[in-house]
Design brief:
Elements: E1 15-16, E2 20-23, H1 31-47, E3 62-63, E4 69-76, E5 81-88, E6 93-98, E7 112-119, E8 125-132, E9 147-148, E10 150-155, E11 161-165, E12 174-178, E13 184-189, E14 192-198, E15 204-206, E16 215-221, E17 227-235, E18 241-250, E19 256-262, E20 267-272, E21 277-282, E22 287-292
Antiparallel strand pairs: 1-11, 2-6, 3-4, 4-5, 5-6, 7-8, 8-10, 9-12, 10-11, 12-13, 13-14, 14-15, 16-17, 17-18, 18-19, 20-21, 21-22
Length: about 300
């Protein structure tokens, strides 16, 4: 119920361990193979610019928007744990975030991973999550990293981390998303009882859902960070699906409207263009659809 959803009135109120710092001082070929080799060479050249714990065999590097930070996930023999590493090619800073410190306290370590879900516009912070491994489920899960055991923020200058959505030992998972302007943050449990937090003012607004549903996700923000769309599915206790929808939320008022409904087709928003057109994907690449938010067509 809504009482089980944590409040987020003060981002600094709940602390988690500071990230651990590290410093470091760097026959014939088919056309397809040549392209692959060239691509690998470019990737390896870029990776070599960063201090790192991981190796190519264990990780898939990702980069911050300003290209200064590299994100990698791998198993660290020294830590004896899965770790998320964030390293800077200029300062040579490297922060290690052990998986076990950001998951529920259970009798076993759930199989899963960690990922950065948002880099702040000023380049100071990275928001990351821990998540369980498993089936992607509905079409709106998997593409965007907006679900997890919790949500955390690391200060990239100091390595200090805080809990935005603290881990709960009841093993439920959150859905969440941060606006492109860093101003607003939407969160809930399985997208139920969604709340919008204005980070600047501390104001928190409940989203007025138009109708009941079972799960939701796949958040996409408007370019100005004032509205958001997401997808839902409605199912019964046996897991039988009988309805999908695509919804639009005004994050300033909390009002919600249903843009699309279908008994069988799952729609996922891929992007929101500057001219207020949504690019949607239907049923896992079955078709791509443009939805005009001005005409609602």
């Amino acid at each position: 119920d809504s009482n089980s959803i944590p409040t987020v009135s003060d981002l600094e109120s709940l602390s988690t361990p500071t990230a651990r710092p590290s410093f470091t001082p760097s026959p014939s070929i088919t056309p397809d193979q040549a392209v692959y080799d060239a691509t690998q060479s470019v990737v390896q050249t870029k990776v070599a610019q960063f201090p790192r714990v991981c190796t190519e065999n264990y990780s898939r590097p990702k980069y911050s928007p300003n290209d200064l930070w590299m994100e990698e996930l791998c198993y660290s023999k020294n830590d004896r744990d899965l770790v998320l590493t964030l390293s800077n090619r200029e300062t040579r800073l490297l922060w290690r975030l052990p998986y076990r410190e950001y998951i529920p306290h259970l009798d076993f370590d759930p199989d899963g991973g960690m990922s950065v879900v948002h880099w702040s516009k000023d380049g100071r912070y990275a928001y990351f999550t821990s998540f369980p491994r498993g089936s992607a489920g509905e079409c709106f899960y998997g593409r965007l990293p907006d679900t997890g055991f919790g949500l955390f923020r690391i200060d990239l200058e100091t390595g200090h981390t805080v809990s935005i959505l603290p881990v709960n030992d009841d093993y439920f998972w959150y859905s969440f998303s941060i606006s492109p302007t860093d101003r607003r943050f939407v969160y809930g449990v399985r997208s139920l009882n969604l709340k919008v937090l204005d980070v600047k003012t501390g104001q928190r607004i409940n989203v007025a859902h138009e109708a009941d549903f079972s799960q939701g996700g796949g958040y996409v923000w408007s370019p100005d960070g004032l509205k958001i769309v997401y997808s839902t599915v409605t199912s019964n206790d046996r897991g039988e699906r009988f309805g999908y929808s695509l919804r639009l939320v005004d994050t300033q008022s909390g009002s919600e409207q249903i843009l699309l409904e279908s008994p069988n087709d799952c729609f996922e928003a891929i992007s929101w263009t500057e001219d207020n057109t949504l690019i949607l994907e239907k049923n896992y690449n079955e078709a791509f659809v443009e939805f005009d938010l001005i005409s609602n067509q």
